[in-house]
Amino acid sequence: METSPIRVVVVDNHAMILQSVVRLLTGDAAIEVVGTALTAAEGIEIVGHEKPDVLVIDYHLPDMDGPEAIKAILAVHPGVKIVTFFGSERPGALYASIRAGSSAWVRKTRAIQELRNAILHVAAGEPYVNEEMDSQPKLNQLLVQYQPIVTLADGRIAGFEALVRWQHPDRGLLDPIAFLPYAEDTGFIEEIDRWVRAESILQLAKWQQQFPVEPSLWMSVNLSACDLSNPDLFESIAGVIADTGVAAPDVVVDITESVLLDDSDGTIEFLSRLKEIGVGLALDDFGTAFSSISYVRRFPFDCLKLDMSFTAELPHSVRSMLLAEEICHMADSMQMMSVAEGIERPDQFEALNKVGWAYGQGYMFAPPQCAEKCDELLALPTLLTLGA
User: Fold this and answer.
1) What CA–CA distance (Å, rounded) separates 23 from 243?
2) Which DSSP helix (H) or strand (E) runs through 256?
3) How many Cα atoms sit within 13 Å of 56 on the Cβ side?
4) Helix (H, G, I), strand (E, B) or coil at 279
5) Among the four 60, 100, 356, 378, which has the fewest Cβ within 10 Å?
6) Is it the case that residue 129 has pLDDT exceeding 70?
7) Are strands 157-168 and 218-223 parallel, antiparallel or unpaired?
8) What distance in Å separates the CA atoms of residue 204 and residue 210, rounded to the nearest whole number?
9) CA 132, 135, 136, 137: dihedral to nearest 10 degrees?
10) Which of 58-67, 108-117, 296-305, 316-325 has the lowest mean pLDDT?
11) How far apart are CA 166 and CA 176, in angstroms?
């Protein structure tokens, strides 16, 4: 008994690409292209009449964004499987389309190798995982580790930085460098960052209840360049703070200088909105870009975090010592917190403490570790004895 071919509708606003996709798909006897459209609206109308098995849709359409179009198509015909066709128009697009209901995605540059496979898999109700997706973690494989930030004067824990790790089923515990670059390429970094913020701010709420101190513990969370392209980012951060009951100033958003390279009005507006509700803003890896001072002048930062490349040269490099001292004085004069990263040895700690750095973090005090291990550290009166 012969099986019917998979009925496919293709929606792409580029006529040449649309024709190329149709030619590609008609070369497979298992697939029948039953309609094409140049806009999402036309695609929705075709789906309403033709009821295809699979719809291939370009993420970036002039009349409707991919996620919005996917939701509208599924409202017309809930049973259709959707393959998102993606170029490079917007970071986070891939996972935004999947959240909206897409069953798979294929990059336009890999269409010949992957598109037919994706259609065959989703039509059969099977998961389709391409090479890039397979190099990234599932959310339930991620975990958050926390590195203490201590007051250099007495070694007391003042806060933590939240750092994501991947508990790989075969390769063990992986540091961010092993998977975050791929996550940034695909936009999955938005999903990861959202999850890390929710987990870490909830953990902060637990620690503040269990270990009440004055001033209260704070949590530093990282922000990526992809995050800044998400129009819902402010509501996401504000929502987690409201849900956990943590005071907004106890949440510090770390932003690297590379994230600020796109010095847009939107970035300034976003940071200003965070500042308005009390969220702390830290300029991370300070001193690694030519425009460091310019960022301090133009953006409403509350904290400077000295890049560990400076700390690594202390106390033996006179230039680094002078720069560390001047940066600390600048932060103090602008009423900004100063945090030195990468403190690994007592001589580095003593040098930074001597020139006035208020806070520090590094392996001398504690490496990033799970929340349960941090409970034990919080019960100690100081971490200075650990690094002695």
Assistant:
1) 51
2) strand 251-256
3) 34
4) coil
5) 356
6) no
7) parallel
8) 10
9) 150
10) 108-117
11) 7
